[in-house]
Specification:
With 131 residues, the chain is mainly alpha-helical. It has helices at residues 3-32, 35-43, 53-67, 71-88, 106-121.
Length: 131
């Protein structure tokens, strides 16, 4: 297997892992309703409609990433979504460890870093439009 194929497989693995995990995270929010997210957003001084960015960042963007259809844009949208999540919900956790000794925001940072990697690297050969 040549290095180009290996890189494409690696990008596919990154895309599927990030896309599926963030998408499932977004679906649970849709099922539970966005009312709680609207109140968190408004409590921080943002307009309530910003909460609907969750649909873009946690449902639409992951689908772009999974399919490789404008995956770079999907990656950027997930990065923006995660920055908002860190600011709105996880600010107090940045310098804290969880009960098992891991960083309290390790999942959020992993989503953010993986999305940034996809935005920078692109989706690879096995994508709808390689963009």
């Amino acid at each position: 297997m040549n290095s180009s194929t290996q890189q494409d497989i690696g990008k596919l693995i990154l895309r599927i892992a990030l896309g599926v995990l963030v998408f499932l995270h977004g679906l649970t929010k849709l099922e539970g309703g966005l009312d709680g997210i609207v109140s968190v957003v408004e409590a921080q001084g943002f307009p309530g409609f910003f909460a609907y960015g969750v649909i873009i960042g946690e449902v639409i963007a992951p689908l772009l990433v999974i399919t490789g259809f404008f995956a770079r844009i999907g990656g950027v949208l997930i990065v923006i979504n995660m920055l908002f999540a860190l600011y709105l919900v996880h600010q107090g956790d940045i310098g804290r460890l969880n009960e098992t000794g891991g960083w309290a925001i390790e999942l959020q940072v992993m989503y953010l870093a993986t999305a940034a990697a996809i935005a920078l690297l692109g989706p690879g050969r096995w994508a709808f439009n390689q963009r």
